[in-house]
Amino acid sequence: QMLPPVLAALADSKNTVRAAAKATLNTFVKETALKDMFVNEIFSSALAKGNPFVKQEIWTWLTEVLPEAKGTLPKDELSACLPMLYASVEDRSADVRKPAQD
């Protein structure tokens, strides 16, 4: 599994590392499909770790790529992310709240 370490890199405090991780996610989407990335609750597990950088970057990235994948993602995988989405909408950090609300 290559995806969990990439998502873990989103927790880094350096913007360059997080940007590289997002670029890698975009490459994965181009070369495969977003639905192939939503398996084994990988995204919900990453979001559950509570790191604000991870939440901010994943929600921002998902707002960019989800419209193109409408209707193709596994419902159970998306449902597993809902508790973290609701928590992020009410997060005390505006950097987490804004992308979660988008």
Task: Please explain how this structure is put together.
The relative contact order is 0.16. 71% of the residues lie in helices and 0% in strands. α2 (15-31) packs parallel to α5. It contains seven helices and no strands.
Task: List the SSEs and their pairings.
Elements: H1 3-9, H2 15-31, H3 34-37, H4 42-48, H5 52-65, H6 75-89, H7 94-101
Keywords:
mainly alpha
Summarize the structure.
This protein is mostly helical. 71% of the residues lie in helices and 0% in strands. 25% of the residues are buried.
Largest sheet: none
Helix content: over 70%
Structural class: mainly alpha
List segments where confidence is low: pLDDT < 50 over at least 5 consecutive residues: none
Counting DSSP E segments of at least 2 residues, the number of strands comes to: 0
Question: What is the H/E order?
Answer: HHHHHHH
Taking the alpha carbons of the first and last residues, their distance comes to 29 Å
If you compute it from the alpha carbons, what radius of gyration comes out, rounded to the nearest whole angstrom? 13 Å
Number of helices: 7
